[in-house]
Amino acid sequence: MNTRAERGTERVGSGKHVLVVWNEEGFRLVLTEHLKEAGFEVTAVDSGRGGLDAAGMQRFDLVVLDFGLGRGETAEGYITGFREASSGTPIVVMTNRLPEDLERDCADLQRLKQRVAGLVYVQPDRTWWAELPGRLQGYIKCEHGC
Known about the structure:
five-stranded parallel β-sheet, single chain, 146 residues, Rossmann fold, globular
């Protein structure tokens, strides 16, 4: 099977290290693979606590955080911890919820948006997957001076 990297497609990640915090294993594995194919180095964990532990031990260029981590965890509850553990590292919250559902379920969606580099709605079709590495690279560049 030819991956995009083997076909010579531009690798936008260029070794940038991304921490993926996502509880659902299938999506976490697919997301990790796509980011690796795009040239990112990826550390993936299945819980907010695991993400904070990883962020406390090494430096990341970007944190990708699942909005609804499961087991009663939410991105909102971990953003402050990631900010403290990874000072200056951009945080992108991703969700597979519809925007209107997120607005209903998130007590303060505008405040959440102000605390992170970006909010990305998951639309797992070919176009979305193809554009995702470039979008994430853009958050890294913007956080460190656009």
